[in-house]
Amino acid sequence: MDDNILEMESDNEDFDDSKLGMIHEEVVYPEEFLPTYYAIKAEVPANKTNLVDYNNQPDSLFFNDGVRSVDFILVYEDEETKPLDKKCTVKRRKKRREYFESCLMQMGLELEATQSVHKDNLVYVKVHVPWEVQCTYAEVLHIKIPIAFNDHTVQYSIGNLFDCITKHFKPNEKLIKKEADCYTAPYQKERHGCFLKMDKEKYFTPSMRSRMANFILCRAPYEIRGNVKKFGITKLLRSGVYKAAYPLHDCRFNVKSTVESCPNERYLLYKEWAHPKNFYKTQPLDLIRKYYGEKIGIYFAWLGFYTKMLAFASVVGLACFFYGYHIQEKSTWSKEVCDPDIGGKIVMCPQCDLCNYWILNSTCDTSKTLTIFDHFGTLVFAVFMAVWVTVFLEFWKRYQSQLEFEWDTVEFLEQQEPSRPEYDAECVHDRINSVTGVKEKVPFTFCGRCFRISIGIGTVLFWIMLIVASVVAIIIYRLAVFFSLSITLKNPGNFTTLEPLKDYVTPQMATSVTAGLINFVVIMILNTLYERVAIWITDYEIPRTRTDYENSLTLKMFLFQFVNYYSSCFYIAFVKGKIVGHPGQPVYILGKYRNEECDPGGCLIELTTQLAIIMGGKAIWNNIQEVLLPWLKNLIFRYCTRASDKKVEPPRWEQDFELQPFTKLGLFYEYLEMVIQFGFVTLFVASFPLAPFLALVNNIIEIRVDAWKMTTQFQRILPEKAQDIGAWQPILQSIAILAVATNAMLIAFTSDIIPRLVYYWSFSVEEGYGNHTMSGFINSSLSYFNTSNFSPATVTDAVERPRDITICRYRDFRFPPGHPRQYQYNMHYWHVIAAKMAFIIVVEHVAYLTKFILASVIPDVSYTTREQLKREKYLTQVILHEVNLNLVSKRLKPAVHDMSSHMARNIDNELELSEY
Asked: Where do the Anoctamin transmembrane domain residues begin and end (predicted)?
């Protein structure tokens, strides 16, 4: 068989016929359709789609004959009215469209076109997958069909005692009926009889038929020139030949269909799942999976499980918060800060070159607030969260394995997932499959693969460094602008226009607002550019399957977004205020800008504030955006589309066309939002115990918002198979491992828990207090500085500082002025450092050991699921073995009959000869 070039995509829609690869047709088309394909290749198809009138049945999901179901919709614009200068393009698009549709018909699909009711230049092409084609592609796609009823008896459990209560938190079982529990096996045409008997209309569900139709659409050719074959609906959509391609919703979301045979699954999903009144109910996951496919089903299963687990973390987090609130008035060190005889008499050193002296008790309110979050209970909560995240991930794997069995995706990745047409189009090199030992086509050699992966890794690292550089640039900008505004606003000089702003705008406020706006603009620009770059890199790597493609893209996008979202929090937690020197010798960046110090209340309260703003603000904004944007887009599109004055209710396919399409990265951003939130809940939870509670409230709303959006505002999502949450699983595990280290370092280096413990056990007695006490901690944690030792670089005429202050204090453990080692670290500092390092080592080892033990003790697959899997494999083998025996006996029966007849004739001949 000769090789032929397959072209999936090109930069030039009309004239680019560049060679993209060599491939055998068997890779793209099922064996049964190869003769059909060769007929298409030999002569230009002449079949045209039949155009029929609308039959005024808005709820119909069938062709005009009322028998053939609509399994997919293609929409194109009749461009005969285009200007003359575009006639050439219009003609070329029309030719490609006619060729493509003719190829679809020769490949077995049935098409019927209907003109739009409200816009005459729109045409809707209805696609039907006939029974024979369904059977063929069910085998190609390894679709599993029931082979026997599940005879596994459900054991009575303690949980059944509470059914009278829990039933109120479940969807209405009278409306959403549970399907029969069956064992399944991949469909095979020649073994059709071994599967459970069902009507042809119910044998393959609408979502299965949509998958088959999409599989064919993605591989059907639309142009053949010589040995160059252009194929795939993706390219036709991108080039404007078609405006949309989507499967149909089965009814309107808020009204049942008038067609009796319609299952009204969309209506049921809206009423029992997407409606806000169901916020307290569990999700109908089986119906979600049946309607939207396993990929969407596994997302909502994970989101629901994550939300349930957050309830436990929220209870402990709230207890930690209220404990801190209870002890804030009893905190000794907080009382010392607020005491006018202690904190009121301590003069603190300026925190920047343009700052003035300040009194310690001016931070009284901040210190009380800090007490709520910075106490010993926070340490206990951080350890609890390290255990919680491990339990969450391990039990999710158990639940996921149960869903894999129930949804027939156990062996999906290994055996059933087909290769992408883009991959098939690039297969030009031969190699021997290490498993089968058969020669196969691959898109590149080992060296070529390494080169492409290296290009991808290098590009991702470059963009990560780019965003890190932007963060550093923003920090330098903050320092520079703060310095400039401090001088300008206090002494406007020639800038007279700034004079009215002096009483309303502070340097800190102006710097924060402008830096925030610049940071927002930079992030949005980098996000937009990087998304395109990440898609281009992933396309360049040519992953074999859709799952491989999404996992690769997910990893690239998340690495960038991780730096994007968490960089500010990591900066505040572990960089800001850590390398600042002392008042007489501060540290400068680029030799000009003094390094930022923490706010008077400390960096922990600043990090807590940052997390509260990000989690609260981001959650509110995202939910508003997810509700308003699709609704407004649909409203505007519906207004523009329904330009005519016809008062005719449009058909189902026209109503769906007015909805928003669900993009390739749609589900990625849903996962990303939740995983970023998971990071905030785990990575910095030691500074904000309310994070799990805020996440819980957000997720309860998020589930219903996502459900409402997908059910009412989006076209029906193309059902796709998925075995698990893909690359997000190792990402979650990596965050869980990193969270132990970040929380340990957060408690050690950002909070004052360790310094307070060191003072309590080691230095409080030496200070003369007798028994161990926290009295005197504030005085012990502040070092002395002689104001005459200010370096000339830190003194400026822009600030008039009181001259009668000779001693000021600053947060550090250093020798006082006049000491032989003045302003160097004292022994207290080294005690604290040793305690911090010991704390990190002990906590990390204990936490990681606990995580390892829990991961080992909790099996990934439950005993019940494991037994059911064994039972399914056993029954499948028995039934298929019987079918194989019957097939063999049928094939051998004529041969046995001929052999018996031949032997009988031989015996008769021998008897006749013996008589002579």
From this structure: 288-872
